[in-house]
Amino acid sequence: MKKDNKYKKILISRTDSIGDVVLTLPLAGLLRLQYPDARIAFLGQSYTRSVIGACSFIDEFIDWQEISTLPVVEQLQRFRELKAELIIHVFPRKEIARLAKQAGIPERMGSTGRLYHWLSCNHLVRLSRRNSSLHEAQLNLMLAKDILSKANLSLEEIPLYYGLDKHDPLPAHLNDVIDRSRFNLILHPKSKGSAREWGSKNFAALSKILPVDKFKIFITGTKAEGELLRSEGFFEQAGEVNDLTGSMSLGEMISFIQAADGMVAASTGPLHLAAALGKFALGIYPPIKPMHPGRWAPLGKKADYLVADKDCSDCRKSGPCLCMLNITPLQVKQKLEIMVYPYLQQP
Q1: Architecture of domain 9-161
Q2: SS3 state at 183
Q3: Dist. CA 74–CA 102, nearest whole Å
Q4: What is the CATH architecture assignment of 173-344?
Q5: What's the pLDDT tens digit per position in 94-140?
């Protein structure tokens, strides 16, 4: 593998969710540092385009959703046209590994944990995510440790390498709802099924006990999540909140998080975005491995989390996590106030 600054194009493949993509951006940051003249491309799902486009370390977005609908011959041609010299399979997919080999990408890096990587990759890295004590962002870096001078970053160092500084200006109608005399707090109650949730009743109760003279509260989520919240009677139970569900694109959501001051959510993409953007980000987590914060905590200078102080797997195969649901709104309020206390004391 090269360490001599001779890569002309590196392709990072991560075709899963927003939070996973956010935690892969530091890999792009270290690659940019190590190979400043290389073109860095990111193969991802179309709905994560705005996240990848907001990262100053990435030069090109490749839409896997678009490529995957093409006939195999055209898929292969598209991969050849990329002219990548290295592909890093951060999120393993058999069909992508096969295409990369058939397209003749010279260096193909993947973990030993996938049998098909033994056939499709020529640089295998022994890496077990399931049994590791490392954070997801650290695991992403360790996959490329053989081509990086510094891959073993601490959790405190990782936020230096997100590079999320290319977000668009916030549209006027969204900028106008920001109140600079108060702490603009986003509550993101749902997770689209990607994480265990704290529950809409808890979020509603939290919104009622936060002082309105200190906090302006916004509720975010997709249109479907907003409808689900309404069906659960969330807005009747909540305090003074501003409903923004279904009203923003992902790009606008990134810009709105940048304009706001903080967020409370479960382990979701928006939480990781808030942390990466340097906002106060408070995550509420289950104590179940590997869903616990040891693997998925938000990483940022102002990020923190709440989790039951116990090892528990009772809810692993069921729906709600009782340990998580039993974290009280008062506990969250107290934690949030500790985090943002200096901010609230500003004149």
Answers
A1: 3-Layer(aba) Sandwich (3.40)
A2: strand
A3: 12
A4: 3-Layer(aba) Sandwich (3.40)
A5: 999 999 999 999 999 999 999 999 999 999 999 888 778 899 999 99
